[in-house]
Amino acid sequence: MPSALLMYQGVQHEIIAGCLVKYRIKEPSHYTYYINTTSVAIGGSYRFKDAIILESQFEFSGFTLGFSYDINISRLRVATYGRGGMELSLIYKAYKKRSASKY
């Protein structure tokens, strides 16, 4: 799952590019149209001239639990002693139930 994020505000900008590899443990139902996918993903991103980001995700029943860790590679690493920052995320994707009828 490739990703890219470009943010600009005035003269400031941030560019992040990365990729996650996703493995589906449980496929979604093809008969009831409910989304019940279970999967895990792991990968990383690069924040240009600043950090390497290690990422992992676990997706289940519309929720995604994510964990990431930024490893600072800029000149700021002197002040942070090379330590990065942890982030924990919880995402919920609401899906509209599809009708089985074509009409």
Describe this structure in words.
The radius of gyration is 18 Å and the shape is elongated. The mean pLDDT is 85. The relative contact order is 0.17. It is 4% helix and 59% strand. The protein has 1 helix and 6 strands, in the order E-E-E-E-E-H-E. A 6-stranded antiparallel beta sheet has the order 1-2-3-4-5-6, with no helix packed on it. A hairpin with a 2-residue loop joins strand 4 (51-60) and strand 5. The chain has one domain (2-92). The longest helix is centred in the C-terminal third of the chain and has 4 residues, at 77-80. The protein has 103 residues and is mainly beta.
How much strand?
Answer: over 45%
Our measurement of the CA-to-CA distance between the termini, rounded to an integer number of angstroms, reads 34 Å
Count the helices. How many? 1
How confident is the prediction overall: mean pLDDT? Answer: 85
> By helix and strand content, what is the structural category?
mainly beta
In order across it, which strands form the biggest sheet?
1-2-3-4-5-6
Rg, Cα atoms, Å:
18 Å
For the secondary structure, the number of strands is 6
Low-confidence stretches: none
Question: Which term fits the overall shape?
Answer: elongated
Main sheet properties: 6 strands, antiparallel
Number of domains: 1
Helicity, as a percent range: under 10%
